[in-house]
Amino acid sequence: MFYRRSDGTLVRDTRDPIGDIMPYIMRGRNESAVYYSKSYCVETIQQYIREQRKKGTRITVFNIISAACLHTFLRRPHLNRFVAGRRLYQHNSFDILYVVKTSMTDDGIESIARVRFDEDDTLASVRDKMAESVDEIKGTEGKEDDRFIGLVTKLPRFLKRFIISLARVLDFHGMMPKSLMELIPLYSSIFISHMGSIGGDAMFHHLYEFGTTSVFCAIGRIYLKPYRDIRTEEVVWKKTIDLNITLDERICDGFYFIKSLELFDSFFENPALLELTPKEAMAEAERAKAEREQRARDKQAGNMEDYWEEMMEHPSEGDQ
User: Beta 94-101 vs 190-194: how paired, if at all?
Assistant: First the structure.
């Protein structure tokens, strides 16, 4: 009963003995953290954004990165895993956490938005859901989880320590009520920090030991970076952003992670791909794979037919 969580499904057969033992060797997320940094040219994305705005649709770079994460995590599901109670689980949903500041001042209050997406979301619906979460935070009443945390912080210190300790025990054994998970903004597939929105550079962020977030992505500001044109050997300056990713290495191996990043990179090269839902994109990928395999079989069959025709016309001495 202790491994039946409301937010995840136990991964019973990982086929990786080393991976199975790692949660016992590396017990915390920050002990298991690996760091990855990459720069992306965003001129293609900005051109796409300008084209969409001419059509009356407002899309941001943050929307595109969030939609790219949605596609990548659903099409590469090992990324959407977490370790709890020394066991590996698959998230039952895909949630993104990110910070929203009520006003761009020193006195502005920070609140964490949680947005849930699924396989039927397009780039447009990702944008709409994120806009709704921002409106909720900046509303007069505020979010329910903020009010709940504010209430807990007013309790005496000994009581707060007891509540947090109890919550850790419940979470370790998979007994945390789902209603409390919804009120604690540390349960998600990925936490994204858009430092560029406040003029900052990307940083490497730690992972939270509490909750289920196994991936943290920090986005930096847009800046000019020199690129060398391999055809002309000339240096050109292009608009670029840095993404720094912190990953709990217990959820997948390095090969799986790098192949997942290749998929993620493809959306920077062609953001129009995000107009499809992940469900549609996966179906399209399966059709393309089936067509490639059929062409390979046809080519192999054709080669065999040519071989036997050649043998019939020019038999070897042993066959004469």
Answer: parallel
pLDDT digits (tens, 9 = 90+) for 241-290: 999 999 999 999 999 999 999 999 999 999 999 999 999 999 988 888 88
Phi, psi of 114 (to 5 degrees): -120, 120
Low-confidence ranges of the chain (pLDDT < 50): 320
Hey, how many other C-beta atoms are within 10 angstroms of the C-beta on 136?
15
What is the rounded CA–CA span in Å between residue 8 and residue 174? 9
Q: What's the CA gap between 299 and 303, in Å, rounded?
A: 6
Question: pLDDT tens across 174-199, in order?
Answer: 888 888 888 888 999 999 999 998 88
The SS3 assignment for 165 reads helix
Of 252, 172, 255, the C-alpha closest to 212 is 172
User: Are 137 and 102 spatial neighbours (Cβ–Cβ below 8 Å)?
Assistant: yes
From the list 192, 25, 30, the residue with the least C-alpha distance to 100 is 192
The continuous run of DSSP H or E covering 88 comes out as: strand 87-91
Element (H, E) at 115: strand 110-117
pLDDT at residue 153, rounded to an integer: 84
How crowded is residue 209: how many other Cβ atoms within 10 Å of its Cβ?
13
C-alpha span between 275 and 194 (Å, rounded): 22
How far apart CA 289 and CA 36 sit, in angstroms, is 29
Name the token pair of 19. 């991976």
For the chain, what is the total number of helices (H) and then of strands (E)? 9, 10
| Conformation bin of residue 206: beta by default, left when phi > 0, alpha when psi is -120 to 50 | beta
